Amino acid sequence: MNRPRLLFLSTEFPPGPGGIGNQAFHLSRGLSALGWEVVVQTPQDYALEEEIRWLNSNQPFRVARLHHHPYTLLEGAGRFASLSRLAREFRPQILLASGSRAVWLTAGYCSLAPTAWVAIAHGGIEFGTRVGWQRAASRWAYSQPQAVICVSDFARRRMLDLGVRAARVEVITNGAEESIFHPVDPEKVKALRREWGLEQAQLILTVGSLSERKGQEVVVRALPLILEKHPGVHYVMAGLPQTQTKLEQIAQELGVAGHVHFLGRVDQSTLVTAYNTCDLFAMTSRLSADGDAEGFGIAVIEAALCGRPAVVSGGSGLAEAVIDGETGLHVPENDPPAVAEAILRLLCDDVLRLHMGKQARERALREQTWNSRVILYNGLLRETLVSR
Q: If you classify domain 5-175+369-387 with CATH, what class do you get?
């Protein structure tokens, strides 16, 4: 029996960082295992060529890699031409688009060459952009597919607030990979603490590119209040160091520079051990000046699978990754005193912190793995094919 053919367009893809790419990779692998023939068209940024070649050659799906052009209009025209060529060659029965520019491209293509397609809405810049033509483009493009899958109810609300009127809207939250993220040998934890020179410290960890939206600044500004009661606390950040210089300056001004550590981009093995090494995870994302927001927060689930509770900003998709008071704590957005209070609540109560970590892992295994997410995507995509 012939496998259904799926062309997946994504604005990012591993081995570089990013939640959109993380999701696209795991969906592509999972759908391939469920009988789909998958081709992914995507750029692959922030990674070495040898990393990209190794990753692409070891997957059950094909990656059609896109390259950037110095002129935006020419890049858009080139990607439309690439999509047209790939579609003629592969003859997809359905397209799946993730990330605003991929959705715009797919909407344009399918308006000229009608094909079943589904869009994924992440609830970030695609619905919050302040640029008028981009808002109009998203309002039109996300209204065109047979279905839109939102990664959180927050993303769904943001999309509807923009005026998108899709034929079908479903919420399927993101997940994480339980075969990768899990408790590790305590000796690995001890070794990493020795490497960092933090054997006796209590550790807060954030994973994600250092940026205004990810809100690492909020935790740095909370540190003076935390250190008043727990002078042995250190804050560790893993991710592309986009705003590292600014964060270093703030830490210096606040007198906490010796308690702030930047790991940069780390490999997967180190990342898993880092989750297991921290006492708690923090993701205090906030609405950025350009309108970007956190649609969900995959790193929170990765930490949960490693048995770590999280302190997260409420009022965004992060609130759906954590059950407040059970698997972690919600805090108001951009509120360092509230962040300090929540972190201290967990650091001062080992029983509570460990219990929440256990609850977080149990919930993640029960309902937040990629395996469970892929099953839902598979069902919706097959329904869309049948109803087309």
A: alpha beta
